[in-house]
Amino acid sequence: MFLPLEKIAAISYTNVLQRTFNMVVEVFTGEGGDEEATEELEFAMLDQEDYNGINENYVTRHKLQDRSLADQRKAKQELIENSRGKKGEGEQEANGGVGEDGMTELQRAQLEAEQQLQDEEDEDEEDYDPGSEGDSEGSGTSDDDDDDDDDDADEDEEEDEEDE
C-alpha cells in the first residue's frame, strides 16, 4: 500500500506489547471538499524489532506528527460510582444526586473515609500502654533464671564428687 507523505496527517503507536505493537496512520481523505477530513488505517501485530526502523528512518526523518499520546488515545477513566450498579438511580437523579440521608455519594464516601481513619486512630490509642516502656518486668523467662538452675545442678555434682 502506497501512502504519499503529503496525505499522512499523523501516526500513532497503540497496543504496545512485549513483542508486537500496532501503528495507526491517519491520512487526509479530502472527500466532499473538506480538507481536514481524515481516515485511520491500522497496521496490527508489527514486530518490536521493526520499531526503530519505522520510527527513526521514516517518521522522524520525514517529520511526521506522532499522536500516540493524544487525548483521544488515552484510556477512559470511569468513576467508581459509574462502575457499580446504579441503585435507586431515578430517585437520586430526581433529588440532584442526593440520597435518602440528605448526602451526596461523594459526601458519604468522605464521611466513611474519615470514620475509618478515626477508628484506626482509636485502635492505636487502645493498644498503647505507657507502663510498658523501659525495663521489662514481664512474665517471660530470662537467661539468669536458667543459669541459676544450672548452677544448682553443678553444685550437686560437686558435692557428689566430694563424697566419693
Could you characterize what this model shows?
- This protein has 164 residues and is of the alpha+beta class.
- The chain has 5 helices and 3 strands; from the N terminus they run E-E-E-H-H-H-H-H.
- It has helices at residues 51-60, 80-83, 89-94, 105-127, 143-163, and strands at 8-14, 20-28, 38-47.
- It has a 3-stranded antiparallel β-sheet, with no helix packed on it.
- A hairpin with a 5-residue loop joins strand 1 (8-14) and strand 2 (20-28).
Topology as H/E string?
EEEHHHHH
Largest sheet, if any? Answer: 3 strands, antiparallel
Give the helix proportion (percent range). Answer: 25-40%
Average residue-wise pLDDT: 75
Low-confidence stretches: none
Number of strands: 3
Characterize the overall form.
Answer: elongated
Q: Can you count the helices? A: 5
Please list the strands of the largest sheet in the order they lie side by side.
1-2-3
Class of secondary structure makeup: alpha+beta
Rg, Cα atoms, Å: 37 Å
